[in-house]
Amino acid sequence: MSGASGDSHSADNTASDGSRLSLPSIHRAPRHKPSSSTASSSSSIRLIIPSNPNVHDPLTESPDEMRSRHSISPPPVKRAGKRVSLASRRSRSASPAGSDSSASSHNTVTSATLSVSTRPSWGGGPIAHPDPDVLRSTALSQDDERSYNYRPFMPSVLDPMSNEPPHIVPRMGEEDYVVQPGQCEFKPGEKLPRGWSRMTHPDGRPYFWHEQHRALTVEWMPEPLISTCVNTVLGYILADLSRSTGRSKEDQIVIGLEPLPEIGPDEFAALYYLVNPEKECVYWVEENSLAWDMQEPNAQLEPQMAGLYLRYQFYKHWDNFPNVQRTSTKQILQWQKALDDARADVVFSNTSTVNYNAKELSNMIEMVDCMLSRSKAAKKHGVKLEGEWLPGRMMQHIYHDRFLNLYSQRGARSDRQQSVFNNPPDQVKPSWFIGTCSALLFNAPQHHLAGLNRMWVDRVLAKEPWKVLVSTLLREWESHRLVATILVTANVSFLGVNDLPPGIVQITCFLSAISSSTSFVLITALEGRIRQMEKHDIVRAQNWLNLLNNENFGLEILAVLLGLPYGLTMWAMIFFTVSFLSFCLHDAQKLTQGVVGGYFGLHVVILLWSLWVSQEDRKPIQEHKKIPKVVVKRTAKVVAKPIRRLTRSWTMNRSLKSSAAFANQVGVGCWMYLQPLKPGIP
């Protein structure tokens, strides 16, 4: 995270996803190439921050004024509703002003490029805001004797990234590795500055620890350039802390260096934060605004929420440097109680805000019990328990979830389907887009949208419902893909029939084959994407939802995407049924057509009635007295007309036939009666 001092001209305003778990390393920050006038020509080791005359204070100038004077990069484009990523903000650095030595006499900021052997003149002030684009109204106080300042940053910035390693290991060449006779101890070959020792994180990462001053850093201390800069910054921090009486002996100092490649290859800005293990808090030597970092809940927070956020950052720090952390029995009991409360909430609530299931919480409680046993054993031997990695890995997520759910604040979210902004998920009004797509895809998008809204209340993703959704989708898609495969085979075989009637038979058969093939391909593509998210943590899913979230339609686009496999499979089945039924009724006798058509119509009525009865949002029949009458009337209107016509035509034909036969008989009788008898016939 970028600090407060100096001019910031970088335009790396990448939109952030609000997540703190997927941040790049601090060693590889993107930079824009500066103009030639800003490059430093000196090759000595430097800590560079512009000097701070009383005329043009970088902390009181607006970003536009700084850019107009230096013209390094265009002003960043701010997007509504989004914020610059923490990595981009951290990559912002102070840029030097013009190199003219007479600039101070003309009321301009001079470029003071000082080696580390000389005390650097850093642009400073009582407020060190992490966002360099914030307009500062506080100038350097006349009573402040310090001529330097530091950039505050958070422990979450130090998370390692697999796609951006801090150091690229060279491949093996012709090196030889010799073991001396009787050698059983092996140490790193690099020499460290006095007082510093090398520690190894449980996951294998090395970092460095100064036991006397209780300082930590992830910078590579065996390099003389890095070690000189870190020791210089450490001296300044210790000098500031010596003037205050609030620091405890157990407090820790974490130092980082921000490369400034636009100024020079060997120039850095200092980053730091302090840790109070007793109070489980992160702090700084001067005021620091956390408004930029505490934007995840997107809500107005009470003052105690800052302490909760800094406690989350404290356990982030514990996770980054576990070897030097000490554990007490009192802390272990507090962690045990917090986990027991979380397990009780999960077991007795179906909509708990805890992002763990009961089995995972039981496993964590079991690990805490083992840690408590080790603590009691260490207490018997008169030593303190050190080097436990579990608290940092475990409690950072507990406190981060509490922060997102506004724990201890008025209106806190105690149910994951509760909206703190009074936007209940079941009252989200669907748009015309989801209504049209649901009508075409058999209401599948509407069903998925309801589940997504319940799972992503106030844009906070719940872990357990997401896991349930992923497993359910994978099972459903497996069955849809099997049906689509069978339909593709059936349609291809059906099209191979000799003398297949043209017209509706062939058209619907082709449509069924196209729908089933599209469903198969879509399921295969979506299944690969979902399985990748299933293997990763919840942050990737949160980023995906943020990517597909639309300002006008919300998650309706994602709901339609998830409902397409079901809808296409249903259309493929319907088209195949129509094609096969048309083939069966083609050139068939009227009796066959009547029987098959009537039986098919009966099944259609049963299907529609079943779908209507199984609706969740309709009124019960027992509470709606008019439903049976309405059903009878509508059914009578639909069915009575053709029945009445058939009956009328049959009755008229029958009556006409009967009248004609009767008239014929009467006429024959009369004719026979009136005919004279032929001679010879008695």
TrEMBL record:
Disordered, as annotated region: 1-135
Low complexity: compositionally biased ranges: 35-44, 83-105
Entry's transmembrane regions: 503-526, 557-583, 595-613
Source organism of the structure: Schizophyllum amplum
Domain of life: Eukaryota
Entry keywords, A to Z: Membrane, Transmembrane, Transmembrane helix
Name of the protein this chain belongs to: WW domain-containing protein
Compositional bias annotation for Polar residues: 1-19, 106-120
